[in-house]
Design brief:
Structural class: alpha/beta
Strand order of the largest sheet: 3-2-1-4-5
Order of helices and strands: EHHEHEHEEH
Number of helices: 5
Largest sheet: 5 strands, mixed
Helix content: 25-40%
Oligomer: single chain
Length: 125
């Protein structure tokens, strides 16, 4: 019954992934708020995900998708065992209402587009 943001990313502790997750954390209230579930997903181990989340003080969960089952379902797995940087917004009815298949972690426009998509999903559009 909540809006969900799935953020697939290649690897913990890399510059782009750190920038993306830090921005999500720093702008959490503005981008998401309490009524949105945010989940970051990579093929990193559970232990690596725990260290990464702790190092950034993330207010949302990271999931370990070692065999990329979830990433494959969303077309986010690459051939080398990493996830492509993609972001999906899922509305309260479970429908994907937004997909950014080339999310740019260092580009403010990507976050503005995501913000608009989350607002639209909240409003049922």
């Amino acid at each position: 019954g909540k809006v969900v943001v799935l953020a697939f990313y290649p690897r913990a502790f890399t510059p782009g992934c750190t920038a993306e997750m830090r921005t999500f954390a720093d702008q959490y209230a503005e981008l998401f708020g309490e009524d949105v579930v945010v989940v970051g997903i990579s093929a990193d181990s559970l232990e690596t995900q725990q260290r990464f989340a702790a190092s950034l003080g993330l207010p949302f969960r990271l999931l370990s998708d070692r065999d990329q089952k979830v990433a494959k379902l969303y077309g986010s797995a690459d051939r080398e065992g990493y996830n492509r940087r993609t972001v999906y917004v899922i509305d309260r009815q479970g429908r994907v209402t937004y997909a950014d298949l080339r999310f740019r972690a260092l580009e403010p426009a990507s976050y503005r587009d995501l913000d608009r998509a989350v607002d639209a999903a909240r409003a049922g559009r």
